[in-house]
Write a structure and sequence with these properties.
Layout (H helix, E strand, L loop, with lengths): L5 H5 L6 E13 L3 E5 L7 E4 L7 H5 L6 E10 L7 E12 L15 H6 L8 H23 L3 E2 L5 E2 L11 E2 L26 E3 L4 H11 L1 E9 L12 E10 L3 H22 L1 H16 L11 H10 L3 E4 H9 L2 H4 L16 H12 L3 E7 L15 E9 L3 E8 L4 H10 L8 H8 L5 E7 H9 L20
Parallel strand pairs: 3-5, 6-10, 12-13
Antiparallel strand pairs: 1-2, 1-4, 2-3, 4-5, 7-9, 8-9, 10-11, 11-16, 13-14, 14-15, 15-16
Helix pairs in contact: 4-6, 4-7, 4-14, 6-8
Bound molecules: 4-amino-1,4-dioxobutan-2-aminium adenosine-5'-monophosphate (4AD) and magnesium ion.
4-amino-1,4-dioxobutan-2-aminium adenosine-5'-monophosphate (4AD) binds next to strand 11, strand 15, strand 16 and helix 14.
Length: about 475
């Protein structure tokens, strides 16, 4: 007999049909009711066992976490709480699970504890829901771009260019660390390394994405990126996934429209296709909120926040306008910011971003036209000589979720900016070639995938929305 996924069984009309289901035991009550879960959905199938029909030794092995194959007839449930149940006629133990040592007993575990057993946490309701939603988000992103004529471009993971300046990089090498070949001045000689030069893990696929966009018009990348910054925060990972669309013949406004459209599409999609898992995470958050003092509770619950994002236009304003708002804000005047906002030109800290989004506008915000000094070399310079055509999207509870810009397509201006920022133009000849040969206005952005998953699932720590988080001091599993 073929296995039927629990998800399918739970949406089937029970009429006594014979079926086989395989899954893991979530609970076994009164030597009679097995809750069986196979991860295809949140719900369990209730398997009813007539213990007189089974060997006692076999039933003893039906423990939490054990893998079973059960067969029987699907009938309308006698009890409340489920529509159907499986009247069990045979049980095969596929894998035992010793309750004496199994760490995941059916009780409430803290997220911190579950992070330490990340290899097992998939088996909890919370992480099952998160990772099913994570999949649907990835799928929705591909759907969005595919339906709009974008081509999925695979940017390299190992790169020899380190010009992006987005963050510290991890070196990729096969040199013997104890005894590397050395140059005349005693430095490791990377010309003798695997690639014949120094190589790193990519921090962004953008520069390669631009090369493709200047031929295919509309591309996006969706891949892992790596940053060796020592950021121990609930929003940073050393390995995270990024979506980077790049569009030829586009300016900053169309870039913002694209990013806002993408976020709304994906959130709207998840609201409709992940109803059960979202409701579970929603209820979980509601319970957690109850344990907090009134003034620390969020104003909107998870489902309200998601709907709000889909239904409202994001606020768009310039960095300069934002600085004015922040300078005159109550927390700034009362010295409540850790980094007081004084002069134009300073970078915004996450406390400032969150003030704008959560307190001032109470909406997602797109900030544009940042000072050129605090942004990357490739951003298009504005007429004022001081700012660049950059945009960051800030989300409640998250801060920056998207960073992007219109790109500098004018060769001379780009070369001048690279010189000012000490970026070696010779090594970047391939990038500059796009400006030499048929350059055109173009724009793009990077969306942090885990930050989006974090927002949609309502979790508080980015380490809980990627299966195996990498951060300073941790590369377990
Ligand atoms: O703002 P960032 O550094 O932009 C770039 O890398 C550009 N090349 C993107 C582009 O224009 N194509 O990163 C983009 C986004 C951020 O807004 C944030 O959501 C996410 O990537 N991000 C991180 N997510 C998790 N952990 C980290 N350490 C992150 N750093 C950035
Ligand atoms: Mg950024």
């Amino acid at each position: 007999m073929q296995r039927i996924p629990v998800k399918e069984v739970l949406s089937t009309d029970p009429s006594g049909q014979q079926i086989t289901v395989m899954g893991w035991v979530r609970s076994f009550r009164s030597n009679r009711f097995i809750a069986l879960n196979d991860g295809s959905c949140l719900g369990n199938l209730q398997v009813v066992v007539d213990f007189e029909q089974f060997d006692e030794a076999l039933l003893k092995r039906v423990t939490v976490g054990a893998a079973l194959s059960v067969s029987g007839s699907l009938v309308p449930s006698q009890g409340s709480g489920q529509r159907q149940e499986l009247q069990c006629s045979s049980i095969e133990i596929l894998g035992d699970c010793d309750p004496g040592v199994y760490p995941l007993q059916p009780k409430k575990h803290s997220l911190e504890f579950l992070r330490q057993i990340a290899h097992l946490r998939f088996r909890t309701n919370t992480f099952g829901a998160i990772f099913r939603i994570r999949h649907q988000i990835a799928f929705a992103i591909h759907e969005f771009f595919h339906n709009r004529g974008f081509y999925y471009m695979h940017s390299p993971i190992i790169t020899a260019s380190d010009a992006e300046g987005a963050g510290e990089m991890f070196r990729v090498t096969t040199l013997d660390l104890h005894n590397p070949p050395r140059t005349e001045n005693g430095q490791p000689d990377f010309s003798q390394d695997f690639f014949g030069r120094s190589a790193h893990l990519t921090v962004s696929g953008q520069l390669e994405g631009e090369l493709a966009a200047l031929a295919l018009s509309k591309i996006y990348t969706f891949g892992p990126t790596f940053r060796a910054e020592n950021s121990n925060t609930p929003r940073h990972l050393a390995e995270f996934w990024m979506i980077e669309p790049e569009v030829a013949f586009a300016d900053l406004n169309s870039n913002m429209d694209l990013a806002e459209g993408l976020l709304k599409f994906v959130i709207g999609k998840i609201l409709s296709v992940c109803e059960e898992d979202l409701k579970f995470l929603h209820d979980r958050e509601v319970e957690e909120e109850k344990t907090k003092p009134q003034n620390e509770r969020s104003e909107m619950n998870l489902l309200e926040r998601l709907r709000f994002c889909v239904d409202h236009d994001f606020v768009r304003l310039s960095y300069t306008e934002a600085i004015d708002i922040l300078r005159n804000s109550n927390p700034n005047k009362k010295g409540k910011f850790q980094f007081p906002v004084e002069k134009w030109g300073t970078d915004l800290q996450s406390e400032h971003e969150r003030y704008l989004v959560e307190k001032h506008f109470k909406k997602p915000v797109i900030l544009t036209d940042y000072p050129k000094e605090i942004k990357a070399f490739y951003m298009r310079q504005n007429e004022d000589g001081k700012t660049v055509a950059a945009m960051d999207i800030l989300f409640p509870g998250i801060g920056e979720i998207v960073g992007g810009s219109q790109r500098e397509e004018r060769l001379e201006l780009l070369e001048r900016r690279m010189e000012e920022m000490h970026i070696p133009a010779e090594e970047m000849y391939w990038y500059l070639d796009t400006r030499r040969f048929g350059s055109c206005p173009h724009a793009g952005f990077g969306l942090g995938f885990e930050r989006l998953v974090l927002f949609i699932t309502g979790m508080n720590n980015i380490r809980d929305v990627i299966p195996f988080p990498r951060f300073p001091g941790n590369a377990e599993f």
